[in-house]
Amino acid sequence: MRITHVAAHNWRNFKNVDFAGGSRLLVVGPNAAGKSNLLDLFRFLGDVSRRGGGLAAALEKRGGLSKTRCLFARNNHRGELALEIDLADGEDTLRARRQGRAGRPQQADHRPGDRDPQWPAPAVASR
């Protein structure tokens, strides 16, 4: 199974991040640009999906939702932390979305082909 698309709103130091995953993904940038925070997004997704893990455990591991959300979160996308990931295995695809706001956790899973209107379709397809 391969990650083909990732989108996040209010994750750590990113107000919005949205990219397609290809056969390789290189992360480069100057110090304090957010490379480690981007990699932590993948660790977070792993913690959420791990047996015995889950969303609450993954957030607690990072100090709670307030420590995970971007400082700009108050005014960006209604202050919600939102993550979306598309996975592919051959012709099978899966889209998962998690979102929550301090005091009001929410989550929704979407079937392949469903897309929330506030999340644009990826501009570049994976190779």
TrEMBL record:
- Annotated ATPase AAA-type core domain residues: 27-92
Instruction: Name the InterPro entries for this protein.
Output: ATPase_AAA_core, P-loop_NTPase
Q: Which UniProt keywords apply?
A: DNA damage, SOS response
Keyword check for DNA-binding, yes or no.
Answer: no
Keyword hit for Cytoplasm = no
Q: Which Pfam families match?
A: AAA_21 (PF13304)
Biased composition of type Basic and acidic residues is found at 107-117
- For region Disordered, the annotated ranges are 97-127
Gene Ontology biological-process entries: DNA synthesis involved in DNA repair; double-strand break repair; SOS response
Q: Example GO molecular function term?
A: ATP binding
Coiled-coil zones: none
Which PANTHER family would you find in this protein's record? ATP-DEPENDENT ENDONUCLEASE, OLD FAMILY-RELATED (PTHR32182:SF22), DNA REPLICATION AND REPAIR PROTEIN RECF (PTHR32182)
Instruction: Write down what this protein is called.
Output: AAA domain protein
Species for this entry? Propionibacterium acidifaciens F0233
